[in-house]
Amino acid sequence: MKPLLGTFYLLGMLVPGWLGYDRSLTQQRQEVVDKVVSPWRILETYSYNRYHPMGEIYQWMSEIREKYTEVVTQHFLGMTYESRPMYYLKISQPSSNPKKIIWMDCGIHAREWIAPAFCQWFVKEILQNYEDNSRIRRLLKNLDFYVLPVFNIDGYIYTWTTDRLWRKSRSSHNNGTCFGTDLNRNFDASWCSIGASHNCESLTFCGTGPMSEPETKAVSSFIESKKENIACFLTMHSYGQLILVPYGYTKNKSNNHEELIQVGQKAANALKAKHGTNYRVGSSADILYATSGSSRDWARDIGIRFSYTFELRDNGTYGFVLPETQIQATCEETMEAVLSVLDDVYEKYWYTNSARKAKSTALVLSLLMSFMSLL
Ligand SMILES: *[C@@H]1O[C@H](CO)[C@@H](O)[C@H](O)[C@H]1NC(C)=O
Ligand SMILES: *[C@@H]1O[C@H](CO)[C@@H](O)[C@H](O)[C@H]1NC(C)=O
Ligand SMILES: *[C@@H]1O[C@H](CO)[C@@H](O)[C@H](O)[C@H]1NC(C)=O
Ligand SMILES: [Zn+2]
Q1: Boundaries of each Peptidase M14 domain copy (predicted)?
Q2: Measured from the CA of 190, which atom of ligand 2 is nearest?
Q3: Calpha distance 338→260 (Å, rounded)
Q4: Ligand 1 geometric centre to CA of 176 (Å)
Q5: From atom 13 of ligand 2, which residue's Cα is the shortest distance away?
Q6: H or E element at residue 117
Q7: 172 lines ligand 2 (CB under 6 A)
Q8: Are strands 280-283 and 242-245 parallel, antiparallel or unpaired?
Q9: C-alpha 252 to ligand 2 mean position (Å)
Q10: For residues 63 and 2, what is the distance between their CA atoms, to the nearest angstrom?
């Protein structure tokens, strides 16, 4: 009996101790939950000069949506191959004006980390400045921005966990013997005719058919459903310092080729004026290489007037592994280029001669009013 009683006694000592331990664990868990729930936990200290893993980008998106509820909404696009949700952020000011859409996606190629960093930078810049910066305010009057910060989420995560230089998605092929489709060879634009491979081991594997991948299916069916209203399609990559216009699958030119080049060249000039970085402008087939199945060519072929691929910094020194110390300058100059494109798109759709007159009248009036308010 004695040893048994002793055992009960010991248990009696241990259980409260164990409960106490459990309580502190619960407390710790609660603190973690509180941190997640408390608004803008990430946003307050979010560094736009760093690369972020996918979990932080998901969190960033939801906190952006919560902080800027009056202009931002978050929308589901579809699921990735590995069943992760794809969301885009819509930045839109309530208005009765007929609006056009600007589409921007980043990170269709997993290893091009500067691209998602730019999408986040772009969103931050628009949201921090749209009230006070007249240029951005004007754009938002008639344009809605749809931003997909990471297109290839599975691949992006894989570059953080396993292989920094992974490019493709993570879909499984040939009975699980090789992985990944090049999502930017998977669009339905002269699919797999040139500059792409049917071999799933290849870096430019085009998939098993046009839009065979869940990611490209999700984006393309969404874009297709809105195409009448999409004025501009921007897809951000690295590296090479290029602004590319259609086409990659042919040397033929699109019917507004001159306009695309002109707007692109002006953007490259604006970019260079910021930090002196040189960009070249041209069609992919002319100045880079032949590619079929790209989203840029597909977007132009379904009738979107302005369609560009940006190849951000650098020019080969660090390549895909651009140091974090260059994020800020890269984003600043790219912002100048994108705003230049958007100004041009805006003017081509909205800024007619009569609008210009109306605008200068309004300007004179508001100047008069501001003088009067000084009195
Ligand atoms: C795929 O792999 C499994 C397991 O190794 C095997 O049983 C099956 O026969 C393979 N299928 C094909 C089509 O090769
Ligand atoms: C390029 O243009 C030529 C002449 O109009 C046409 O015959 C050809 O099919 C076009 N090629 C492609 C790939 O669209
Ligand atoms: C990139 O580097 C190459 C090789 O040094 C050079 O020829 C080219 O002009 C550079 N391009 C730009 C846009 O600076
Ligand atoms: Zn790329």
Answers
A1: 50-345
A2: 13
A3: 13
A4: 9
A5: 250
A6: helix 114-129
A7: no
A8: parallel
A9: 6
A10: 61
Strand, coil or helix: what is 122? helix
Burial 151-176 (b: 16+ CB within 10 A, else e): bbbbbbbbbbeeeeebbbbbbebeee
Q: Please, is 43 exposed, middle or buried when counting C-beta atoms within 10 Å of its C-beta (0-12, 13-18, 19+)? A: middle
Atom nearest to 241 CA in ligand 3: 13
Q: What confidence tens digit (pLDDT) does each residue in 73-109 have?
A: 999 999 999 999 999 999 999 988 889 999 999 999 9
Q: Is the distance from the beta carbon of residue 250 to the nearest atom of ligand 2 less than 6 Å?
A: yes
315, with CB counted inside 10 A (0-12, 13-18, 19+), is middle
Q: Which of 188, 192, 250 to mutate to test the pocket of ligand 2 (most atoms within 8 A of CB)?
A: 250
Q: Which residues line ligand 3 (CB under 6 A)?
A: 241, 278-280, 315
56 catalytic per annotation: no
- Ligand 3, atom 6, lies closest to the CA of 315
Q: Which domains does the chain have, with CATH numbers?
A: 45-373 (3.40.630.10)
Cα gap 367→348, rounded to integer Å? 26
DSSP secondary-structure letter at 183? Answer: G
User: How far is ligand 1, taken at its centre, from the CA of residue 174, in Å?
Assistant: 9
- DSSP, collapsed to helix, strand or coil, labels residue 77 as strand
The predicted-structure confidence for 210-244, as pLDDT tens digits, reads as follows: 999 999 999 999 999 999 999 999 999 999 999 99
Give residue-wise pLDDT tens across range 270-323: 999 999 999 999 999 999 999 999 999 999 999 999 999 999 999 999 999 999
Distance 178 CA to ligand 1 centre (A): 13
Cβ–ligand 2 distance for 252 under 6 Å, the answer yes
| Four-residue CA torsion sign, 309, 291, 228, 221 | negative
pLDDT tens-digit series, residues 312-336: 999 999 999 999 999 999 999 999 9
Report the b/e string of 263-299 with b at 16+ CB within 10 A: bbbbbbebbbeeeebebbbbbbbbebebbbbbbbbbb
- pTM of the entire structure? 0.84
Concatenated DSSP letters for 291-347? -SS-HHHHHHHTT-SEEEEEEES-SSSSTTS--GGGHHHHHHHHHHHHHHHHHHHHH
Q: Which ligand is nearest to the CA of 176?
A: 1
